[in-house]
């Protein structure tokens, strides 16, 4: 955590949102590398010596909880952050990297605007 803070890396903080007691960290997420067919249908999970852990079973994994937190409660914040911070930082870095002495004229030419556009 100290490395993240010292390097300016933001960590998702679920306490900023009203998620209820059941959605408090830490979260356990497993990745599924196996597909098993049963009477109830297809199950995705991971096979261990002691049994099969399903990705979508809330008793085995917090994938559904994290999915709900990130995509139902926080999606607007992620979209806003992406637009206002990440894109703007990218845009400014790109503009700074442009060679302003190139043959492309990036300045606005006032004569190209009509009187209607100026008002």
Helix content percent band: 25-40%
Shape: elongated
SSE ordering: HEEEHHH
- Per DSSP, the total helix count is 4
Description:
The protein is an alpha+beta fold and 119 residues long. The protein is built from four helices and three strands; from the N terminus they run H-E-E-E-H-H-H. The chain has a three-stranded antiparallel sheet with strand order 1-2-3, with no helix packed on it. The longest helix has 23 residues, at 75-97.
Give me some keywords for this one:
alpha+beta, 119 residues, 3-stranded antiparallel β-sheet
Write the layout of secondary structure elements.
Layout: H1 2-6, E1 34-38, E2 41-48, E3 51-54, H2 63-73, H3 75-97, H4 115-118
Could you give a quick summary of the protein structure above?
The protein is of the alpha+beta class and 119 residues long.
């Amino acid at each position: 955590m100290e490395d993240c803070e010292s390097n300016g890396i933001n960590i998702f903080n679920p306490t900023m949102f009203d998620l209820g007691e059941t959605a408090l960290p830490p979260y356990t997420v497993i990745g599924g590398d196996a597909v098993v067919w049963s009477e109830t249908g297809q199950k995705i999970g991971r096979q261990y010596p002691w049994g099969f852990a399903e990705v979508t079973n809330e008793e085995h994994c917090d994938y559904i909880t994290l999915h709900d937190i990130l995509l139902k409660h926080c999606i607007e914040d992620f979209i806003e952050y992406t637009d206002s911070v990440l894109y703007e930082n990218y845009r400014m870095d790109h503009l700074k990297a442009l060679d302003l002495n190139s043959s492309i004229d990036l300045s606005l030419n006032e004569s190209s605007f009509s009187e209607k556009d100026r008002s």
